[in-house]
Every structure is written in C-alpha cells, then in structure tokens.
Write a structure and sequence with these properties.
The structure is a homodimer of 217-residue chains. Chain A is of the alpha/beta class and 217 residues long. The first copy, chain A, has a single domain, classed as Rossmann fold. In chain A, 37% of the residues lie in helices and 22% in strands. Chain A has an eight-stranded mixed β-sheet with strand order 3-2-1-4-5-8-9-10, with helices on both faces. Chain A has a two-stranded antiparallel sheet with strand order 6-7. In chain A, a hairpin with a 7-residue loop joins strand 6 and strand 7. Chain A is globular. Strand 11 of chain A pairs antiparallel with strand 11 of chain B.
C-alpha cells in the first residue's frame, strides 16, 4: 500500500526503510520538500521510496506513521493539512519528551492526558493508533532485536478497533510482535507514554537501549 | 531480623505473612493499637507476628516496609515518628494513586517528582528503597506467581547502594526475583511509579492482575 512517513529522523528512516522492505511504497514527509535527509533516505531505498512535504506524504499515504519528535507532532499534522488526513489511520509512535530541563527528559503531557489523545482531539477525522513508542526504533521493526530467544509485548491504543487490527496484521505481526495487548481506547496511551521514564532509566542503568517490555503472565 | 510493616491492608497482610515465613519477627503497625485487621493478621501468623501503632512497628523494626496506601504514606511516617525511623531502611512499595476522580486512577505526583522522593525528602534520616510497587502483592512475594516458566524483572531505586543490596539479598532474592535492575538514585522511582497506569490498563485488558514486567534483553 502507499504509506506516508512524517519525520526524517532516525525513527522515520528506520520505519520508512522497513516499510519499503515489506513491499510498500513510502513517501517521507518533512517541513519542506527537498530536505537533505529525506532525499538521502529516498535515494538509498529504491524506486518505492520518495520524499516531499508533510502534506505530500499525508496525501500519498492511505496509512501514515507519525515519526516526528513529540513536541513537533501537532505542528507537522497541521502542516499536513486536515483534508489530507481525513479517514486515514495514523500510527503514532511519538513520545511527549521534554528535554528543555536537561536529562533525563520529563514528559510535557502525562497522567490525565497524553500526546496520543491531543492528536486525536485535534484531528477527529483521523484514526489514531498509538503503538511502538515503548521501544528503540530498531526494535520497533524487529521484535527479535531485543533477544534471539525471547520476545517482548507490544501494546496498541486507539478508539477504532478495526484500525488497531489493521496495524497489528500489516505491521506489528510482520515485524515479529507476536504478543500484542489491545489496551483499549486512546486514553490508554497515557499508560504507554508514561513508560518512557522507566525506559530511559533502564537504558541508563544497563547501557542497552535494545530491550523490550514483556508482560509475563 | 525484626521488621515493621506499616499498613494493615491486603499488601501489608501479604508482605507481613511472607516475612514471617522467611523467619523474621514482624510487627504490623496501624494508626491505633488494637486495629481489628492487625489483630487478626497477628493471630493467624504465630508467635513471630505482633501488632501495634505505626510508632510501635517503626521502633520494633530494623527494616520497615511501607505498605500504606500512597495517599496515607507521609502521614503514617509522621505518626511513626522521626526518632523511630532514624537510620532504618524503608522499603517503599506504595504508589501515588489518586482515585478521587474515578477509575482508572491517576497519580497525585509524577513526572518531575515521585512519592518515593517525597518520603526521602521528608525523612532524610531513613534510607528509602523503592521496589515491588509494579506488581500485585501476591507476585511481590512470589515472582513465580506470574508464570511457572518465566520470570519478570524487578527494579530498585534509592540513594543508598548498600541498602539496595540488602533489600535484594534479604527479600527480593528469597521471593524469586532473580533479575533485578538497580535504576539508580531515588529520583528513578518516578519511572517505576509511572508504570502504574499501564499496569492498571493491562489488568483491565487481560483480566489478569498477576503479571509482571520483564525487560527482554
């Protein structure tokens, strides 16, 4: 299918390349057409990879991945344009990390709200599915990257049940996530976004960012 | 050793009984001596189980377990009395859950502070070790309760390295926690306390509260 990836950073790169490998046509979007990082990514990923503005990528994709930094997510979606987002699934893997007060980051929204909810409220015409935000991007697209012998759990949150099933079938399953828990509506994104502080501290304590969380049960 | 358990609820009961089984002498403390639940617990747990006020339990124990509800934790410690707490290890397993706005609960402190830090700041004479707060109390005292074939990870947070090692050796290890990550100082308790929202939602989604979190790596 045609997929728009919003964001040209490490997460957008990794997700975009993994989507091309799955056989999809992918357009990477950024603030301005001709972004150097987006051009380099497209050049490295063959005929099914292209680049353009956020609006170009949103218009192109039937499914969109939000790979922006959390603080830029709403801006990027406003630039993408409401008419280009209408009725599309937005897989939101961004986190509301606030680095302005130094390390480790805090969250600029949490507890009684979440970035996933902010996006869904601002753009009611899209179907937000929050997932993958609790692991490093290399683990996102390869669940086995954490361990050859064990597998973490992935969560999905969103108001539209069919969209969550699409995301599980078309992306999480091919990327090796065979234990997925549907937490419920988009308010449950508070829970997974609030895992970021322990993610950051676990990374700091172990020196290993390629871990995942498994619900042992 | 002599251990004081603060709190007479399900968590205090389960922790207290498990400590007696490990061979310790345990005094359960509550707001007033003669609390019915504390008397019943002591009667059910033999000669090494006794009850009294928060101050009695704190004075009795060389190690203390904070098993109060989060909202009552600081009050209980004030009632215990600074002189009874001096130089003791306080294993803080409480969570800052706020049920006042209905279910699911939010946290009354998070992100840039934590209940573990509030306790450490209010009582600098105690050595707070935050741990066990991310699982159901039956799992706290029996890591194998989640799964016969797999084991979750337990985190410890606290400013005093030796106290964390004592807690791991004397309690976490006997209770089956063979994968423990020391996250660092007490500020890292923000991370584990902020796991509560996803704990609550996972419980809701799966109908199973006897799970644990494993860091797959």
């Amino acid at each position: 299918m045609n997929i728009g990836v919003l964001g040209t950073g490490m997460v957008g790169n990794t997700i975009g390349s993994a989507l091309v490998k799955l056989g999809h046509s992918v357009k990477m979007g950024s603030r301005t057409k001709g972004n150097e990082k987006a051009i380099a990514w497209a050049a490295a990923n063959g005929a099914n990879a292209s680049e353009g503005t956020f609006a170009d990528a949103a218009s192109f994709g039937t499914v969109l991945f939000n790979c922006t930094k959390g603080e830029g997510a709403l801006d990027a979606l406003h630039l993408a344009g409401a008419e280009n987002l209408k009725d599309k699934i937005l897989i939101d893997i961004s986190n509301p990390l606030d680095f302005s007060k130094g390390m480790p980051p805090s969250l600029f929204v949490c507890n009684t709200d979440s970035l996933g909810e902010q996006i869904q409220r601002a753009f009611p015409q899209i179907k937000v599915v929050k997932t993958l935000n609790i692991v490093n991007c290399e683990v996102m697209v390869n669940a086995a990257r954490s361990s050859a012998n064990d597998r973490g759990t992935m969560f999905v949150s969103g108001d539209d049940a069919a969209s969550k099933q699409t995301v599980i079938r078309d992306f999480l399953t091919p990327w090796g996530w065979d234990d997925v828990i549907d937490l419920g509506d988009i308010t449950t994104a508070r829970g997974t976004e609030m895992m970021l502080p322990v993610w950051v501290r676990t990374w700091g304590a172990t020196g290993n960012g390629h871990f995942s969380f498994k619900i042992v049960r």
